[in-house]
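Render this sequence as a predicted structure.
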Amino acid sequence: MYAQYYYVRLVVLAVSVLLDVYSAGLWSFAYVRTALPFCLVLALASFGALFGAVIATAFAVDLAGIKRFDPANVIYGFSYFVLQPFVALVAVVGQTWLVIWLIRAKASKSLES
């Protein structure tokens, strides 16, 4: 069932891994620049998401493994290979916006002192 989408899966999962790498780097950078504890929590969460994406990629490349998991569940395939990367993309855009705001707020506060 999923064989016709092999290359689509690979591209989607590669994008998902790249977004998680970016997110982990972004929150690590924010923590180093601002030392705000929630940035550290978000960095750790991003590294966890990256680990999950790498495991998911290894699992998805093995077509037989997916078939053993649940060969007839179309909702699983759609939610896993379409919605999850879309949500990751939206989260990365929001996180980038937040980090830019945090860096600017910290810089303007240090100029006032």
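Summary. The chain has a mean pLDDT of 79. The radius of gyration is 18 Å.
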